[in-house]
From TrEMBL:
Entry-linked InterPro entries: Acyl_CoA_acyltransferase, GNAT_dom
Lineage, top ranks: Eukaryota, Fungi, Dikarya, Ascomycota, Pezizomycotina
Domain N-acetyltransferase: start-end pairs: 51-207
Molecular function GO terms recorded: acyltransferase activity, transferring groups other than amino-acyl groups
One Pfam family it belongs to: Acetyltransf_3
Protein name listed in UniProt: GCN5-related N-acetyltransferase (GNAT) domain-containingprotein
Keyword line: Transferase
PANTHER family linked: GNAT-FAMILY ACETYLTRANSFERASE (PTHR43415:SF3), SPERMIDINE N(1)-ACETYLTRANSFERASE (PTHR43415)
Ranges in coiled-coil conformation: none
Length: 225
């Protein structure tokens, strides 16, 4: 195989059309700031986690940041410069005084949160989770980021299955996951207590073969006609 041909698609491996992905790093101030933003937002918190709805202490934020950084892959999601310019123009946010756009961090995402123990790594499966800060929701960024992570999981991490969960009171998330190619694999009935009501937890999964079908890629990695 020609080495140049096999690596030509890696030039922009850590970005997608509008987004860039940086490794989650506990020493990164941007990472800590976005963790606080999404974890202290009650709506984002309720949709992303079955944990009891409450303000988070700094220790809890630090623990979450540490756990995400230990994932098989944990990333901060950032706008590429041209998208940052477009977002600022649409939202009325001005550029920096020097005229250069600083990077905008919009969320975090993790595959295999907390890391995958060696004793179960041979199963080649991992759970996927994402949090997008409220100002950047409803712009397709979540869809784009999830697609990027799915490609990384099956192209580079050699995973065989990827899973993601949603509460039944999150119809938009459910619709998105199904549009991405996830299949509903199970429903844990009335296991989530939220806002004076019982709700189901839905488990979605995608196999490597299903990802290949969605991307129209053969098992050998070639694009199908």
């Amino acid at each position: 195989m020609d080495t140049k041909d096999s690596t030509s698609d890696l030039i922009h491996a850590f970005r997608s059309e509008r987004l860039q992905y940086r490794k989650a790093d506990e020493t990164d101030a941007d990472y800590k700031a976005i963790i606080a933003k999404v974890e202290q937002d009650p709506v984002t918190q309720a949709l992303a986690s079955p944990a009891i709805l409450q303000p988070r202490r700094q220790k809890e934020l630090d623990q979450y940041a540490e756990n995400l950084a230990r994932s098989l892959l944990g990333v901060t999601i950032c706008l590429l410069p041209e998208e940052a310019t477009r977002f600022r123009a649409q939202s009325g946010v001005e550029v920096d005084e020097d005229g250069v756009n600083s990077q905008i961090v919009i969320g975090v995402m993790a595959l295999g949160g907390g890391g995958i123990p060696p004793s179960v790594a041979h199963h080649r499966t991992a759970a996927l989770g994402i949090r997008i800060a409220s100002p950047y929701q409803n712009r397709g960024y979540g869809r784009e980021a999830l697609n990027w992570m799915l490609d990384w999981a099956f192209r580079h991490a050699a995973l065989h299955t990827v899973s993601i969960t949603a509460a039944s009171f999150n119809p938009r998330g459910i619709h998105l996951y199904q549009e991405l190619g996830f299949s509903l694999e199970g429903r844990r009935r009335e296991t989530i207590w939220f806002n004076r009501g019982w709700h189901d937890e839905l488990e979605f999964g995608m196999t490597e073969r299903e990802w290949e079908e969605v991307r129209r890629i053969s098992a050998s990695g070639q694009l199908r006609g």
